[in-house]
Amino acid sequence: MEGEITNLKYSVRSFIRTEIENCVDLYIKVFNSQPWNEEWSYDIAKERLTDLYNTPKFLGLTLYRGRELVGFIGGNKKRTPQGIVFYIAELCINNDIQGKGLGSLLLESLEEQLQENKVSSIYLITSNGGLAERFYIKKDYEMNENRIIMKKTFN
């Protein structure tokens, strides 16, 4: 993305490598709190976000309030027979400003950039029945009737 998208006191920028450390701190703050209540350590969160950044065809955006990082979104593009698709791996907004339209600002900025790059669709995984699911439904995302998520846990 060239330049910045500015919305009053918030600006959306391309996610660059030097922001990983700040994103790790925000990630831990958000996902170790309600409603997620996960147990992210600094090292594990840093590995996750560094791996995401290093994924081929990574695309990410950051959200700033002045000089303070308050959100980010990231994922990667993949080519399929139906065209290029994008997988959102992470969307993270500071707990203190959730519900104020800033997740929408980030998501819509990403969608605009993806459409300019001929991406045909976006996929993501999120928890069901919660605020995140309602957020995406409000943004016209829908359940993919042709796919399910499966897992196998090793003891």
TrEMBL record:
It comes from Gracilibacillus salitolerans. This is GNAT family N-acetyltransferase. GO terms for molecular function: acyltransferase activity, transferring groups other than amino-acyl groups. The keyword Transcription regulation does not apply. Keywords: Transferase. The lineage of its organism: Bacteria, Bacillati, Bacillota, Bacilli, Bacillales. Gene3D superfamilies: 3.40.630.30. Residues 10-155 form the N-acetyltransferase domain.
